């Protein structure tokens, strides 16, 4: 099935993982000392598609996501050390959700095409 979905199946999984990182930032907006993180999607995608991905029995998607994660520096320092900027996180989450939906739409289209080929309808 992953061959059928190709790059788009991998992209969908990684986009979901980025949404989880951004949601964690929002959930911890009031946690003292929490460091906001993000995931560089292009780095994660390249890592997940590399021939070495998943070597050693590791989940290639999780490994790629971990490789692409980074601490995002704060635009405004806070007294408690928390680097989450709620407005910035909400904007990043909204954009990531749109990108996820675009990937999902493409995957749905591929599946519909396959069902049409199988059923002839």
List low-confidence stretches.
none
Strand content: under 5%
Order of helices and strands: HHEHHEH
Q: How confident overall, as mean pLDDT?
A: 90
**How many alpha or pi helices?**
5
User: What number of structural domains do the residues give?
Assistant: 1
Distance between the termini: 21 Å
| Helix content bin | 55-70%
The profile of the biggest β sheet is: 2 strands, antiparallel
Radius of gyration: 17 Å
* Strand segment count: 2
Reading side by side through the largest sheet, how are the strands ordered? 1-2
The computed structural class is: mainly alpha
Q: What does the overall shape look like?
A: elongated
Description:
The chain is mainly alpha-helical and 121 residues long. The chain has one domain. Helices cover 64% and strands 5% of the residues. It is built from five helices and two strands; from the N terminus they run ααβααβα. It has helices at 2-5, 7-27, 41-49, 60-68, 86-119; strands at 37-39, 69-71. Strands 1-2 form a two-stranded antiparallel ribbon. α3 (41-49) packs antiparallel against α4 (60-68).
Q: How do the helices and strands line up, and which of them pair or pack?
A:
Blueprint: H1 2-5, H2 7-27, E1 37-39, H3 41-49, H4 60-68, E2 69-71, H5 86-119
Antiparallel strand pairs: 1-2
Helix pairs in contact: 2-3, 2-4, 2-5, 3-4
